[in-house]
Amino acid sequence: MPEQLWFTHILNQMFAGPVTGALRALHIEPTYPQAPINNAVAMELVVFLFIIAFFLVVRSRLSVENPGGVQHVMELVHGFVSGQAREIIGHHSENYVPYLTALSIFILVCNLIGLIPGFESPTGVTATVPLGCALVSFAYYNWQGLKHHGAWGYFKHFMGPMPAMAVLMLPIEIVSHLARLLSLTVRLWANIFAGDLITLVFFSMIPIGVPIIFNGLHIVVAFLQAYVFMLLTAIYVAGAVAEEH
């Protein structure tokens, strides 16, 4: 049985039976029936609960006359994402800002939670968490393209500017879009995994002083990767909803 974090152990103690039963109902046999919940899933749940609780608190303290520091920070975050979306997508970007903001905050918290003793970054533990984020973004921008253009109008995006090139362009575009899944997944997972690994190595060699430097670098990488993931998603949305001229 793999090593479990303390929160993962609690979840498996409480929900191992129902989770195993649900997986078997889907014809999925868990490797460890006594512990079907792994660390990555447990950490995602922690991140989800933290974000929900955080925004409930922020929402309860919103004020026009006397905004607090946290409200100012969140307004800055929303303004930053809105500005990036407006530059990339255009004047109709407001509809996509909520998803881009939620995506970037979720990935950022996932990247940073590994700095807390007793927790791990789910984006660095396994590639399945970055892959899940990539799949959601992949489905999101394609759905937005279908909504904006209709099925046939969006399909024409894959056929190139001229009908004669459709036979060549269609497979190229399909492969290109599928490659985005790999690009988003590997970029996020590899950077966070490498940051965690380097910090662990130096902590085991020089436990005083030096790991603080690498923790600082890890924080920079965490913010950067959350931004890059959000930025690429915005670019994909812009391509999906773009009007041909």
Question: What's a quick, concise take on this entry?
Answer:
This protein has 245 residues and is mostly helical. The protein folds into two domains: 1-37, no CATH class; 43-241, no CATH class. It has helices spanning 6-25, 39-60, 69-88, 97-112, 122-125, 128-155, 166-205, 210-241.
Over all CA atoms, what is the radius of gyration? Answer: 21 Å
Q: Helices and strands, in N-to-C order?
A: HHHHHHHH
Count of DSSP-assigned helices:
8
User: Which structural class fits the helix and strand makeup?
Assistant: mainly alpha
Q: Count of DSSP E strands?
A: 0
- Mind describing the biggest β-sheet? none
Q: Choose one word for the global shape.
A: globular
Mean pLDDT: 89
Molecular structure report:
The chain is mostly helical. The chain folds into two domains: 1-37, no CATH class; 43-241, no CATH class. 74% of the residues lie in helices and 0% in strands. It has eight helices and no strands. Helix 4 (97-112) runs antiparallel to helix 8, helix 6 runs parallel beside helix 8 and helix 7 (166-205) runs antiparallel to helix 8. It is globular.
